[in-house]
Amino acid sequence: MKIGIIGAGFIGGTLTRKLTALGHEVRVSNSRAPETLAELAAETGAHAVLNTEAAEDADLVIVSIPQKNTPDLPSTIVESAKPGAPIIETNNYYPQQRDGLIAEIENGKTETAWVAEHLGSRAGDVVKVFNGIFWKHLLEKGAPAGSAGRIALPVAGADGAGKKLVFDVVDALGFDPVDAGTVEQSWRQQPGTPVYGKDYDADGVKKALAEASEVRTAEWRA
Ligand SMILES: NC(=O)c1ccc[n+]([C@@H]2O[C@H](COP(=O)([O-])OP(=O)(O)OC[C@H]3O[C@@H](n4cnc5c(N)ncnc54)[C@H](OP(=O)(O)O)[C@@H]3O)[C@@H](O)[C@H]2O)c1
Known about the structure:
Blueprint: E1 2-6, H1 10-21, E2 25-29, H2 38-44, E3 47-48, E4 60-63, H3 77-80, E5 87-89, H4 95-99, H5 103-106, H6 111-119, E6 126-128, H7 135-140, E7 152-155, H8 161-172, E8 176-179, H9 202-211
Parallel strand pairs: 1-2, 1-4, 2-3, 4-5, 5-6, 7-8
This protein binds NADP nicotinamide-adenine-dinucleotide phosphate (NAP).
């Protein structure tokens, strides 16, 4: 597959490493010139490109940047990908540590819905996954399907071919995908929820999602 990854930090860099290792053609960008990603490109065989080029003709796009930087993304991401290509976003709202106040999220909009709005027209193709797993575990703790205790990851987005493709990618990376509902229900996996930051198996993830509360606690407010 052709995969565009926007953001090349802990998570974007890890996904670049793992997805190139699986044989995918990866274009990766950060907020600066492609030359700043020369080392990652040389290590993985990924193509370092401008932000405006990363999603070009992609079967799958991954956005993995600080939540507050979402409005800086190019407006062309969705339209430059293949029609129907899902857009994974891995972001978390960290008001106190990094992002400052984002009023719409404070007022109850899910982090993913906010990202989808900024990405524009095909918001229905946005899927939340990888937001709650520590990057080093994403890098090192994948396991073959059927392994006892295989870590499971919640996947939230509209049902359809895009979500199915994301399920397949999560599985190929070594994790059990668990359906966490729609973008509107993705608060169940946001920071501060029972599933966030845990390495539960599929049963554990389902239980934790069911126990989540929609109320954003003080720790996760600006
Ligand atoms: N770290 C984790 O274990 C972890 C786990 C799950 C989810 N997350 C979430 O995933 C997201 C990424 O986390 P991270 O730890 O990978 O962050 P990070 O290491 O700080 O890396 C952020 C990346 O985003 C890039 N970036 C920033 N603004 C951009 C823009 N406008 N366009 C393109 N690229 C941009 C940065 O590029 P420059 O270097 O050019 O600024 C950098 O490559 C965050 O929302 C985070 O909360 C993190």
